[in-house]
Amino acid sequence: MATLFSCGPEEDAKQYKIGFSQCVSNDAWRKAMHDEMYRELSFYPDLSLEIRDAQGNSATQIQQIKELVASGIDLLIVSPNESSPITPIIEEIFQNGLPVIVVDRKTSSNLYSAYVGGNNYEVGYTAGQYIRNVLNGKGNILEIWGLRGSSPAVERHRGLLNAFQGSDINIVTEINGQWEKDTAKNQLSEHLLKENIPEFDLIFGHNDVMAIGAHEICNSLNINNKKFLGVDALPGPYGGIQAVTDDVLDATFFYPTGGDKSIEVAHKILTGDFFEKENILQTAVVDSSNVRIIKQQTDKIIDQQDNIIRQRDRINIQMEIYKNQRTFLFVFGLTLLIAIISLIYIFKSLRDKQEINEELKNKNKEVSEQKDKVLELSQKAEKATQQKFEFFTNISHEFRTPLTLIQAPVEDLLKNKEAAPFKPDLLLIRKNSMRLLRLVNQLMDLRKLDSSKMFVKAAEHEIIPFLEEIMSSFKKLAMQNGITFKLIADDRNIKLWFDPMMLDKVMFNLLSNAFKFTHEKGSIIIKVEQNALANEVLIKVEDTGEGMSKESVKHIFDRFYQGENFSQSGSGLGLALSKDLIELHHGYIKVESQPGEGTNFTVHLKNGKAHFNSSEIIEGEFQQYFSEESISFEDFEPVPIVEDSTDSKENTILVIEDEKPIRDYLCKQLGKYFNIIQAENIETGIGKALDQVPDLITIDLMLQQKNGFDIVKALKNDIRTSHIPIIVITAKKGIEERIKGIKLGIDDYITKPFSFELVLERIKMLLANRQKLREHYIHELPVENTAQTKQSPDKKFVSNFTSLVEKNISNSQFGVNEICQEMGLSRGQLYRKLKSLLGYSVNDYINKVRLKKAKHLLLTENSPIADIAFQVGFTTSAYFSTAFKNHFGITPSEFRDQQHQN
Ligand code: FRU
Asked: Which of 187, 230, 401, 517 is the most buried (most CB within 10 A)?
């Protein structure tokens, strides 16, 4: 992976920049030199080359050398145009530490790093030797010089001269060709065209191009049989080898360019390899004897060089492809690496996530298990609470009965003059049993509120009389303690929609509290104010009592809260209940208090009834309210019982009660005033009611076996008992219960705990009502209209009975037996029902109807009295006259005479 992403050796190796100052470059030899250099460079990718051409001008060359050095080259190659002018700059550069390679032409000193080039002296010398051979040691030479200031020209000349030593060969003419063909041609042509020029056998050009140019000139001047020798032996169509092949030149001498060698040496220098300072390239002669083979070789070399170039180009292309591929591979690899790293990361993340998920899942499971457990526990707790509440509700019911049984005899004892010495104790018993009862009631109310079973039944009432009635329970207490206790109202006729039972409890609580904490000579004021802005009525209870701390005020409506003062006797229920009850009225209650100054409670109730929903409103009929507390707090002095001995034992009461203590108590107490029949269960109760048809029945609605309402229904629907007034005594206090009962025909409702006084008074009242009804029935007689559609069973009974009697009025045999048969009643039942409803026995009643009818007939008909007597069922007119006189105080004939006189 590391190699894959490494940048490769060429990128890693240091790059070297080589500057080459070329003296001239417009000839084939120099071009060959450049080609060799580039060819060689392809083997050294760490080298780059910049060539500057001085175009045969030494000054230009100096300038260019400076520029190259300034550009930051690492090594300078220089082929000096002329030795002397160029030497100083080369020495300077070299001495400054920049490596310098001198190629081909030399400077005048040896201050350079290396020299690469042919041995020009040897070239000249070899050429001289060759010429000696060719000319057999004797002849004249025309020498065409290269640039005279350049070292090859000088050295070649020197070599040539040395080779000629000891021979008869002379250089007869020297021409300055300056290495250039055209210059050489011009100079030669100019020379040849001169007169008296020395004869020559051979022209030796310092290079091939000048020698070839000389050949051309000679040819053009028809100068034949001359030999032409050059230097360089370049391959290629215009090179010396071709010229030898073409017999243009007789011979040429290899003078390698050294381009490849100079690059090789440069690389060695730059990379610190060992290198030779003097790199002398060998020379050799090329003439007709070897030109063919050499040409073949050089052609081959050219081919190979071309091949090499092609290969190099291919390599370059491959390199490019490789680079691209490598770049691609690099990018791909990098992407792959990133992908792999990402994958590893994702995988790791996934694994982590999975682990976290697993952990979360486990935690979730744990939590949900715990939740389930908590739920289960809370359900169990809820169930247990419900059971406790049920138990608590039931036990509360249970408390009521013994409390009733405590209260009732206490009430009796309080009325009993003989018990006068125990009156304070009895009052204490009464007061505390009342208190207990109130607590039980409050607890039960809160329970109802909690189970949302408590509903407001609001009706419109005058608030002032309502409050005054509640106040009346406290008046005595106020008087005893010298407390100013009054009601102040802007308007005494304020009407308000409220549930009297509930508001009664609230006001009773507020007043109880006020009295609890107000000292003697203090004041408790109830204020009733209209708040027109808020469209509400404020009921304030202001006392000058002990007041409360801020902390107590904050919690005073909390359930079971017992503040510092309130703890002395409060249960912490009354105010909590009051708040809930007022909130059921869509109102609210507030408290303000200053310790030591007093407490003000304000109940805010809205005007009108729009804030109640329809189920919370009772219209019209049941507007009467039942204040139990008023019973509890009725005057402290026992109310004397008004004995009415005339009523005593005239009526029979059936007491249906399954709780023996209460039944015994009721029977014992009622027994003083009435005949008592008692029943401990429903069957016995109904049986006795049907059998003995009592004048009144009291029933406990909470009978164990059967719902009390079912008995009421059964009794009220039976013709034999339908007329009997029923008083229900119950522990159930709900208004719904009352409505249900009243709809069924229950005549009165008394809630436990009851005051015997109340029971007695209600019984007396109902019996008196019954008497009135009886009179009403009698007054209605004889019943003319029997087709009344909606009749009560009793009225229906009276109606049926009278019409039956009327129908049979002329039948003297018609009596109890016939009626019992017709109406499906026993003699006793008929007797008691008739007696109860009309106050007469059957025979008395029939008699009364007969006489009433007779009276009517005496008035409307002229029939003889004996006939009328028969018509109304009397067998003899004498008995008719006696009965008529007994009833109306006058005989039938006297009655008729009286009417006639009128
Ligand atoms: C090319 C050339 C060659 C010769 C050499 C000497 O420019 O003239 O023909 O051998 O230079 O420097």
From this structure: 230
Encode burial over 403-413: b for 16+ CB neighbours within 10 A, e otherwise: bbbbbbbbbbb
Nearest CA to ligand 1 atom 6: 152
Residues 1 and 587: their CA atoms lie apart, in Å, by: 84
Same fold, 455-616 and 652-779: no
Q: What is the pLDDT of residue 181?
A: 96
Could you confirm whether domain 652-779 is CATH 2.30.110.10?
no
Residue nearest to atom 9 of ligand 1 (CA): 207
> Whats the size of the chain, residue-wise?
902
For residue 711, is it left (φ>0), alpha (ψ between -120 and 50) or beta? alpha
Residue 771's identity, in one-letter code, is Q
CATH number listed for the domain at residues 455-616 = 3.30.565.10
* Nearest-atom index, ligand 1, CA of 207: 9
Question: For residue 487, what are the β-bridge partners?
Answer: 526
Residue closest to 833 by CA, chosen among 724, 725, 745: 724
Tell which one of 105, 207, 231, 257 to mutate to probe ligand 1, the residue whose CB is within 8 A of the most ligand atoms. Answer: 207
For 781, residues 6+ apart whose C-beta sits below 8 A from its C-beta are 802, 848, 849, 852
pLDDT, one tens digit per residue, over 680-689 is: 887 788 888 8
The full set of domain ranges for the chain reads 16-115, 119-256+282-292, 311-341, 455-616, 652-779, 794-821+842-901
What residue ranges line ligand 1, CB within 6 angstroms?
A: 24, 27, 29-30, 104-105, 146, 150, 152, 179, 207, 231-232, 255
CATH 3.30.70.1320 given to domain 16-115: no
CA of 308 to the centre of ligand 1 (A): 25
> Tell me, what DSSP letter sits at residue 727?
E
* Segment 59-106, tens digit of pLDDT: 999 999 999 999 999 999 999 999 999 999 999 999 999 999 999 999
Q: Name the CATH topology of 119-256+282-292.
A: Rossmann fold (3.40.50)
Topology of 794-821+842-901 in CATH?
A: Arc Repressor Mutant, subunit A (1.10.10)
Closest ligand 1 atom to Cα of 146: 8
